[in-house]
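User: I'm curious whether this sequence folds into something compact or stays loose and floppy. Could you predict its structure so I can see for myself?
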Amino acid sequence: MREVSADKAYLAEPNLDAIAAVGALPFIPFKSNSREMEHPNEHWRKMWAYFDLKAEEFLRHYHRRSNVESTFGAMKAKFGGSVRSKLFAAQVNEVLAKVLLWNLSCSAAGET
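Assistant: Here's the prediction. I'll summarize afterward.
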């Protein structure tokens, strides 16, 4: 994992620390009451500096999540949003099967 794009609800120190712990860069927009470089968390300050110096590039990375959200929405519309399996392993397999079917349906339709 190289990047994590998330909405403002995930703008918290534990999340930023967890993202940094795996060596990824966070792309999380700031809330209206965010305090620039005054924040005590090192990862927050790095993300703020990136946003401040390269806002357009930062937002390009962040908006990649729009593609993911659109795809998940289309998959839920086509296959339903619920997972019926009870066991965790079966739930994982069910979701992976939906992803596989989605990719196959896109390939069959000539989409990429």
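Summary: The chain has two domains: 3-62, 69-108. The helical segments are 13-21, 42-53, 55-62, 64-79, 88-108.
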